[in-house]
Amino acid sequence: MTAVDLDTTKFEVERLLNRKRMVGFGIPAVIFAYLIYIFFAFDVSGLAGRANWDNAVKLASDSWSYKVHVTRDNRSGEIRYAVEGERKGSYPVGERPDWVSGDEVITIDLGGDHIVRYLSENRTEIQIPGFQLIEVQAEGRSLTSNLPEELPEWISASNRRIGITTEEGRITLTGARTEVFNYFPGWELFWFTLDSPYYGQGIGTILFGDRIDPERSNISGAFSDWSNNKMWRHKDVAWAIGETVLMAFLGTMGAAMLALPLAFLAAKRFSPIMALRAATRRLFDFVRGVDALIWTVVLARAFGPGPLTGALAILITDTGTFGKTFSEALENVDQKQIEGVSSTGAKPLQRYRFGVIPQVVPVLLAQILYFLESNTRSATIIGAITGGGIGLMLTQAIQTQKDWEEVAYYIVLIIAMVMFMDWFSGWLRGKLIGRKD
């Protein structure tokens, strides 16, 4: 090697090393600059400052707990006891929680020496450890209390409303009513409401014990009361889950049936007319280029809300996706198998049926089953717009901003539904296509 060749080689080596060095430092620098851009573009610091973590903690705790309301109507003097404050969860006449006692003076023991007393003439006493005895008088629309001017963070007070939040519960006082919220873990009344004869009965008593309701057997009566639970609406939830799955099924299978014949028109091997192929492919691009949620809004204006509207939205979008996928699969079929069928004197339709379809069936079924599983999730969101399925119930529960345990219940059911569809599609794929060892 001459000196000139050595210098040339050295120059090339140095150039390659410099390029690698620039790439090694340049790519991380670009990524870092992009992250800085995101930080300012999305106002991450402002978002963190506006976040209300107390509300987040409250919503998270409400998802696994429930509260019992003890409410006094300051106009009539009536006292009501209800789970989540709903009439459907009201205690029967003459019954109340065991942590409430007294007749003339209603004493509410929240635990931890936190005690609230409903006195006569719309007076209320609140005893909280480490703080003075709070006395409040409701007169018309205004409140009079002995609260000091400087209040701790857990008390908010005005002449119209007083709110007290403690670790044991909450108390709100207005001129119209006084209300105490006592929190407990669990999903109360999930199985039976308070008016059901099966409330508080163990599973052994229901299955093997004496008849609880003289007019019904224990099993049929318990199932009827559970499914017709007015608080948790198990029958409506089951129907909504069925609507969601049906929405996904009709949309996916309808799209597959429409896309298969159209895919032959879009495949160059089976459609020699270029204009027809181009028109079919542009049709696929159009229908799949618009998201299913947009089609849902358009169709809802045309046909009104309902599960069928959601199914049509899925059908339109997936027709384009299936059409593109199926046409690509048809382009890659083995010509020898088609020629073998043709040699038997088969007609064109018979050649497609016995020479083409068996080759693409595994690909088609795999795509259809995958989209069926995916559309089960999509149908939840679409149902929230079209007014059908579990998505609507989830949206309604979120909008009330009250019963977050119901939101958690619906989310758990949606996850279970998706997991089941995942297992079912995998099982069905193995049965229809077979599994590789």
Write up this protein.
This protein has 437 residues and is an alpha+beta fold. The chain folds into three domains: 3-48; 66-185, no CATH class; 234-432, MetI-like (MetI-like fold, Orthogonal Bundle), CATH 1.10.3720. It is 56% helix and 15% strand. It has helices at 3-41, 44-50, 53-62, 203-208, 218-227, 234-266, 274-289, 292-303, 307-331, 335-342, 348-386, 389-400, 404-432, and strands at 65-73, 79-83, 100-101, 106-111, 114-118, 123-127, 134-139, 142-145, 155-157, 161-165, 169-174, 177-185. The strands form two sheets. Strands 2-1-12-11-10-9 form a six-stranded antiparallel beta sheet, with no helix packed on it. It has a six-stranded antiparallel beta sheet with strand order 3-4-5-6-7-8, with no helix packed on it. Helix 6 (234-266) runs antiparallel to helix 7. It is extended and about 100 Å long. The mean pLDDT is 85.
